Amino acid sequence: MKISVLNGSPKGEQSVTMQYVFFLQKKFPQHTFSIQHVAQRLGKLERDQAAWQTVCDDVAAADGVLWAFPLYYMLVHAEYKRFIELIWERQAQKAFSGKYAAALSTSIHFYDHTAHNYIQAICEDLGMQYVNYYSADMHDLAKAKERQTFLRFAEHWFDAIAQAKPTLKAFAPIQANAMTYTPAPASPAVKNAGHKVVIVTETTDTQTNLGRMVAQLRQTFAQPAEVFDLAQVDMKGGCLGCIRCAYDNVCVWDAKDGYHEWFDAHLKTADILIFAGAIRDRYLSARWKMFLDRSFFNNHAPALMGKQIGYLVSGALSQQHNLREMLQAYAELQRSNFAGIVTDEVSSSAELDAQIQAFAEHAARCADQQHIQPTTFLGIGGQVLFRDAIWSDMRFVFQADHRFYKANGFYNFPQKKYHIRLLNLLGAVLMKIPAFRKRFYSKEMIPGMIRGLQKVVAEA
Question: Which UniProt keyword terms apply here (predicted)?
């Protein structure tokens, strides 16, 4: 059978992901693998209709389509995202419809589930038969056991194609929100003196709901917010995945555009940061994705610590739980306060006006109090994963991260809690005594869990 591989790495054949594809080629010589480097060649695909049609024809002639990509900021690379947008813009859905699809990613398992949720949802929106995914650690291919698991994944997919097996669906079609927002004149009542408010948006066009939301929020603050349109931000291209920034946070693009300087001058100095975007397919725009990808010059260090981060979103966010999770996680991973999300999924313009007003008041109050909500698993899980990776496998490369983590006390490993280690050692010995063990679990366990808290309550 013929397999069309859509490579989502900007590095083309030099990517880690493609080594997994080459491995499949060797192991399944009975199948033909046609590889399209759509992320690396995105510029040509946008300019050259013949090149675009070649990719579409390749997909249309295939029995199966493999979405193969490295993870970039919880999703696919910005150029891959743009390729997906073009499918709808150029009405190329027919080439994909009915094809049996699978997804292959490489990463350190940082929010790989959100990337795979996104690709599966895209496949289902295109009418494809999505079979399964394989989320590989970057070096799994070097392990015999993982190679066998990977081969079984491929066999299951090939069998599904050959036998035309039915596939399981996970995502319902999106029902678009048709409400047109007509804001009332805003009263600049929210006091934000001493707090710099920055709004980053993909458009300021007041002919759109998003543009009107941005304008309304800006005018709600007594000291107007700074507004930056991503279309005007000097980004000459997307992240190249070269990792040259890992030593000293210097990006290869720094000498060619102004993104790094703009990020440091305006975003790092803000107190309240609002990101505004409209939903495109199952995410925000590819331009937004490029903004996030390019911010990787900060590596795995939270460059926006201590800020208030919130969102204005135009579109059916209530039907996009995967996207909502990514938005909240971004704020938490920055060790900032997640100030909330305002969407235009409301019944009236007056209701949206009220929500924007309340949103601004909440963000300003939290900034006054320097309030940071407790971090959920969305933030803690990612922080621990990065901590362990930078301490061990990735430290040699990501020297800037290591210096930052060390200076800011991020290496908070539990084994450094020596009093807990001593308690565990003694406890393990005592637990071997049946009488002690019985009394502990039956009479001491539950009262002991709340004893310290009861003291705090009593003294309040």
Answer: Flavoprotein, FMN
